[in-house]
Each structure stands twice: as structure tokens, then as C-alpha cells.
Design goal:
Length: 157
Amino acid sequence: SQNPSFPRIAGQQANYLMTTLKAFREHLRKEPEAVSYMWGMAQNKDDNTLNLLSLYFNSKAPTANEKGDPDLSAKGKVIYENGITQSGVPACISCHGAHGEGSIIAPRLAGQHIDYLIKQFTAFRQGDRTEATTMPALVKNLSADDEKAIANYLQGM
């Protein structure tokens, strides 16, 4: 997506896409764009169709995004790689990978839009992402400035 409100899914982890598409179909994701767009698109898709869509987008090469603000990106890199010990925030790198590539249990974050990432931090905190059981506890101690810094770093990865 070139629209900063929507995620970039080329090269996204297939397991994450499958979980996400099922969450849309089952109305487990409740952020406004999920309700407005994705609930309807996913509602009549069976698991095989969702799996094929996941594999298709996973097979596409991700493209680079614009770099974020350099100062914010530098702060975001420190948080991404080291966490914030005094706030109990673990390093993002442990699940999302050294290059933001994701893993079998975590989505690719590299190249995501700043606005989209910030909206997801909010969705986790508000309980709109019930399929993501780990993230709400991990983001609760991030400040708005921390979130902006991480998002700036990730967009430029």
C-alpha cells in the first residue's frame, strides 16, 4: 500500500497473514479500518482461500519505504534493539528480527508506514487487536514519543 493508513503486505510472513485474515473474518480485529474494509472482504473466504492469499503476498518482494526522521529513527533503533529496561519494554528485535523481517510468530515490520504502525500501537493498547495476545502487554509502557521513534525507524528499514 502507498496509503499510510494501510499496511504494506508484500513479503509479509505467511503465518501472520493467515492469522490476521482469520481475525478479520471472525471480527477479532476491531480497529476502524478492519471494520470498514477487511471484515467484509474476509467474511466469505474459507481457510484454503485465506492460505492462498497469505502465500501469494508472502511471495512478493517487499519494497523500500521512505526514511523517517533521522533523529527519531536513531532513538527508535535503540528501543528496537535494546528495549527500555526501566519501563519493562523488551527489545523488539527478539521477535521481529534484526532487519524487521519478522518470524514464524511475529510480522514483518520493516518498511511499514509510520502512520499505520502508530495506529497499531493504539489498537493494541485499546484492545482492538484481540488476536495479538502478546503485544498489548508489551506496548502499554511505551510513550507516544517512543512509538513515533520506533515507527520512524521501522519505516526506513
